[in-house]
Structure formats: C-alpha cells, structure tokens
Write a structure and sequence with these properties.
With 536 residues, the chain is of the alpha+beta class. The protein has 3 domains: 17-145 and 406-521, Orthogonal Bundle (GROEL, domain 1); 148-213 and 371-402, GROEL, domain 2 (2-Layer Sandwich); 215-366, GroEL, CATH 3.50.7.10. It contains 17 helices and 19 strands. The protein has helices at 21-40, 65-71, 77-93, 97-116, 121-142, 151-162, 171-185, 193-196, 259-283, 296-304, 315-325, 379-402, 411-425, 429-442, 444-452, 457-469, 496-515, and strands at residues 17-20, 50-53, 59-62, 144-145, 197-203, 211-213, 216-218, 230-239, 287-290, 308-310, 329-330, 342-353, 356-362, 370-376, 404-407, 475-477, 484-486, 493-495, 518-521. The strands form 6 sheets. Strands 7, 8, 9, 10, 11, 12 and 13 form a 7-stranded mixed sheet that branches. Strands 4-15-18 form a 3-stranded antiparallel sheet. A 3-stranded mixed sheet has the order 5-14-6. β9, α10 and β10 (308-310) form a beta-alpha-beta unit. The longest helix has 25 residues, at 259-283. Bound molecules: adenosine-5'-diphosphate. Keywords: ATP-binding, Chaperone, Nucleotide-binding. This is Thermosome subunit. It comes from Methanothrix thermoacetophila (strain DSM 6194 / JCM 14653 / NBRC 101360 / PT) (Methanosaeta thermophila).
C-alpha cells in the first residue's frame, strides 16, 4: 500500500492476511454455504445420518444437524458464526437448528446473486430485515392455538421432533413419555428441561423398555448390604453434611498423645455420629441420601435403624431430588425435622447388570423433576436417543409456554414465500429485490425436504405454490407418499416459536456476514511440539 508521500505504510503485523471488499464477501459467503451444505442432507424425516469420527476414534452417528456442527472441527471464522447460530437456536428452543443453518446458507446464496448484479450490501441487509419482520407476521397469522389439555397435539409435536431418528416403531410410546414428563415438570408455564428432566441411559435391553420414572434414578448403590433393598412409603432425608469420623492424619488439628486419649476421642466421635443418625430417624426418615461422605460407622448406624442410604449424590441430583420428592436439603442432621423430609412411594436399589446398581426413587406425588430411563443396544444409539428425547422435550415445552403451533413439512415456508412475494411487489426500488430474494430463499426448506425424500424438488414446489395460492395454508411435502398433503391433518406440527426463532437466527447471521467487507487475520502461531514429542 502506498502512502501519500509515496512510501508504503504498513499497519499490519508481518504475516497478517487481509481480504477486502467483494473478495472478502465472496469468501465469507462460500464458507457459510459450505457449512449449510454439510447439514442439508440431514434435514427432515427422510434425511440421512452422518457418521463422525473424532481424532480419538470416537464415533457419533447422528441425524441431528446441530450435533454434526458441534462435532465438526471448524476453522473458518464465518463458518464458526454459523455454528454459533445453531447453538443459540438449540439453547433457545431446542429444535430447528438444521432449518436455521440451511436457511442462512440460502439467504447468503441469494444475496450473492444480488451482489453480482451490483446491489449494495446495505440495501440487501435492509431488505432482509424488512423481510424477516414480515415473515414473523405471516407465521403468526397462520399459527393455531393449543392448550395444555390438547394432549394429542402435544404428542404430535413430540413425534415431529423425533422423526428421522430411526425410532419409527417406538415413536408413539416415546411421545407419551415426553408429553407426560413435560406436563409433570411444567411450572407456571415454564418447562425447564435442562434442570428438571434427568435422562439415564442403560446399554442392553431394548428401546421398548424405556420408561418414565416419576422421581429420580441415581446411578448409585446402597451403602451397605445390611440396609433394606427396598423401602415402601419412603420418607427421604436429603443431607448436605458429612457422616464420617474425623480423619486423624499428620495434619490433624487435634493432637493427642495417649492411646487412651485417641480411643476416647474416637468413641466420642462415634457417639456424635450415632446421635446424628438417631436425629434423622427421629425426624421419621427411612431413606438418607447424602451429598457428601458417609463412613463405616455411620453406615452401620443407618443400617441398624433399617434405613436405606447412599452417599456422594451429585449436586444436580440433589436439586432434582428436592424438586421430585418435596424434600428440603438438610445441612445439620441434628436439626432435621419431619417437615424437611420428601416422599416417594418406593425407593429401591435395583441391580441393572453385573456390578451395576441404580437406586430408583419413584412414585413421587406431583414431582417437579422426573427421570427418563432409556434402554438401547449401544452407546452410540443411546446418545442419539438422548438427543431426540431432549429435542422433543424442548419443543413440547415451547408449546406449553407459548401455546401456538404451525404445520410442518415446509408448509410455513411456502406460505411465507408466497405472501412475501406479494408483499415485495408493493415495495419499490432495490429493497424489493432483497425482499423477493428472501422469499425465494425460504423455499429451500420444502425443496430440501422433497429432495431428501427422493422426490422431484421442482414438482414439489410447483404443487405447493398452487395449493397455497388456493388458500390451503397447511399443505406441505408428503415425504412418505410423494406429492403434497395437509400437515395439520397428518399430525406434522411444530411450535411457532421454533419457526420464528429459525427465521430470526438465519436472518441475523446472514446480515451479520453481509455487513463484513474487510477481513484481517493475524498470523497464526505455529504450534510447537513439546520436547520429546514428534511433531506428528
Ligand atoms: P431441524 O434441526 O431443523 O429441526 P429436522 O431434521 O428435525 O431439522 O427436520 C425438521 C423438518 O422436517 C421440519 O421442517 C419438519 O416440519 C419436517 N418434518 C418432520 N416430520 C415430517 C413429516 N412426517 N413429514 C414432512 N415433514 C416433516
């Protein structure tokens, strides 16, 4: 670069790379589209799976676009932005990640066509913003209200979210489990799946054994075989205290010189433990679940009182146990009272397989946290099931919170495209071009659904446009038999929230990428191998 005086002025460190203007835009758009392309074939119930192998050789087989993106080791900054969008979509609403990413890719593709025609990026950004607002309006207007009592619709929502995950035969049962779980934990319209649904995976057995436990399952064993294996009508103490003798290591605070003194001290400590266990028993507890340690002596006293106990219960399990059983976590066992105790119909230590026990705390009355125990042949399969169940729980939660649904199968996208093109015609100037580009881009969803189902995408779009032109708003791609079908009748439904969020996320990231016309990248530090390590 030459300065005014003719001397070059260098403002970047040596080795930095810089792309400016159209070149930068083109590279960024290409990177974003490559990411979208990577997940496009997973979209919809007929989408294909991807097998991903990481550098450790661990395998993930998934149909979930979001998972594909997490697992890809992505370098390009713009590609990373797209992955972030998927993550945000997943966190916000739990589904629609592939849709958001595919749509972002298509919005950028259409934008590039406009850039080539000389439309300024700012005009495109403005037009896309207008279009996004219009899309939300159209989606709202075609949505249908649902109430909590509309169980059938909630089941359909769960099933639509789980399609394509290779569980067709079990979909009905799993949908029931998901709906019951979401209804159970709903609290004032809020469905906190992350903190209130525990998913426990058991390899072996079949998916058909999967069950909803109205309580919590701990991956622990009871402390001592002398304790009862099963307690009915359980009154549960949740303890956040240690029931152990103080250890007398070299750094012990108490120094005792005589052997007698040591014995006395230990006896005294035991007495304290005994009193603590007695206090729990007096409060009425017959099950003690402790977040910290329980020593041999305390375990013996607990068994003597015929209590079932477990130690080192995880922090998140303690919180869920409190929500499920209605217990209050006790800090000082001496202060325990019957009001602190939680309830469950049964607490049972079950042997799951060789060397593996679990404690089931079940039959809780009105539990505000529940567990889904999933069975399956392999860990890879169980992980995919966990993702499917999570997505389904989230979407049912979305509907319980926002109470509106739209038909799936590309119907909302076709409707948005049709109405948006009409709207574009009312605009003037170049903004019209951008709004129309947005409308055309949205059709990538039904087109891809058709393509992934082995249908002719052009025929599908033409047929769908005709139906929507006649006012049939719920028509989408019939992925099973070809052609088009009413998605509401067919039970293919999605939360309005998921669609709104997908369009919003896609538009946001596309416009963010379009606004960049200068990419300055610092020189990357070479990774130096540690001494003694080969560079490869
Ligand atoms: P995402 O991550 O975007 O949710 P999916 O792979 O789950 O991606 O695909 C969701 C799309 O598949 C939605 O547009 C949804 O309406 C559609 N879909 C799901 N089930 C069906 C079905 N039975 N028939 C037609 N479309 C369906």
């Amino acid at each position: 670069m030459a300065g005014m005086s003719g001397y070059p002025i260098i403002i970047l460190k040596e080795g930095a790379k810089r792309d400016v203007g159209r070149e930068a835009q083109h590279k960024n758009i290409t990177a974003a589209r490559a990411v979208a392309e990577a997940v496009r074939t997973t979209l919809g119930p007929r989408g294909m799976d991807k097998m991903l192998v990481d550098s450790n050789g661990d395998v993930v087989v998934t149909n979930d676009g979001a998972t594909v993106l997490w697992e890809l080791d992505i370098e390009h900054p713009v590609a990373k932005m797209i992955v972030e969008v998927a993550r945000a979509q997943d966190d916000e609403v739990g589904d629609g990640t592939t849709t958001a990413v595919v749509l972002a890719g298509e919005l950028l593709k259409k934008a590039e066509e406009l850039l080539d025609k000389g439309v300024h990026p700012t005009t495109i950004v403005q037009g896309y913003k207008t279009a996004e607002a219009k899309a939300s309006e159209i989606l709202e207007s075609m949505s249908v209200e649902v109430t909590r009592d509309n169980r059938e619709v909630l089941r359909k929502i769960a099933m639509t979210a789980m399609t394509g995950k290779g569980i067709e035969a079990m979909k009905e049962k799993l949908a029931d489990i998901v709906v019951d779980a979401a209804l159970a934990i709903e609290d004032n319209g809020k469905v906190d799946v992350e903190n209130r649904v525990k998913i426990v995976k058991i390899t072996g057995g079949s998916l058909a054994d999967t069950e909803l436990v109205h309580g919590i399952v701990l991956e622990l064993e009871r402390l001592n075989p002398e304790m009862p294996r099963r307690v009915e009508n359980a009154r549960i103490a949740l303890l956040d205290a240690t029931l152990e003798l103080k250890k007398l290591g070299t750094d012990a605070k108490i120094t005792i010189s005589e052997v007698e003194g040591l014995r006395n001290f230990k006896e005294g400590e035991k007495k304290v433990l005994e009193a603590q266990v007695e206090a729990l028993a007096k409060a009425g507890a017959n099950v003690v679940l402790c977040q910290k340690g329980i020593g041999v002596a305390a375990s013996h006293f607990l068994a003597k009182h015929n209590m079932l106990a477990a130690r080192r219960v995880k922090d998140e399990d303690m919180k869920m146990l409190a929500l499920a059983t209605g217990a209050r976590i006790i800090g000082d066992p001496m202060q325990a009272s019957s009001q602190d105790l939680g309830h469950a119909r049964v607490v049972e230590d079950r042997k799951i397989k060789k060397d593996k026990h679990m404690i089931f705390i079940e039959g809780c009355r009105d539990p505000k946290a529940v567990t889904i125990v999933v069975h399956g042949g392999s860990e890879v399969f169980l992980d995919e099931m966990e993702r499917a169940l999570n997505d389904a729980l989230m979407v049912v939660g979305d509907v319980l919170s926002y109470r509106k649904i739209v038909p799936g199968g590309g119907a909302p996208e076709v409707e948005v495209a049709e109405r948006m093109r009409e709207y574009a015609a009312t605009l003037s100037g170049r903004e019209q071009l951008a709004v129309k580009a947005f409308a055309d881009a949205v059709e990538v969803i039904p087109r891809t659904l058709a393509e992934n189902a082995g249908l002719d995408p052009i025929d599908a779009i033409v047929a769908l446009r005709a139906k929507h032109g006649e006012g049939h708003k719920a028509y989408g791609v019939n992925v099973l038999n070809g052609g088009t079908a009413d998605m509401l009748d067919g039970g293919v439904v999605e939360p309005l929230k998921v669609k709104l969020q997908a369009v919003k996320s896609a538009a946001e990231v596309a416009t963010m990428i379009l606004r960049v016309d200068d990419v300055i990248a610092a020189k990357r530090e070479e990774l130096k191998p540690k001494p003694g390590q080969s560079p490869h």
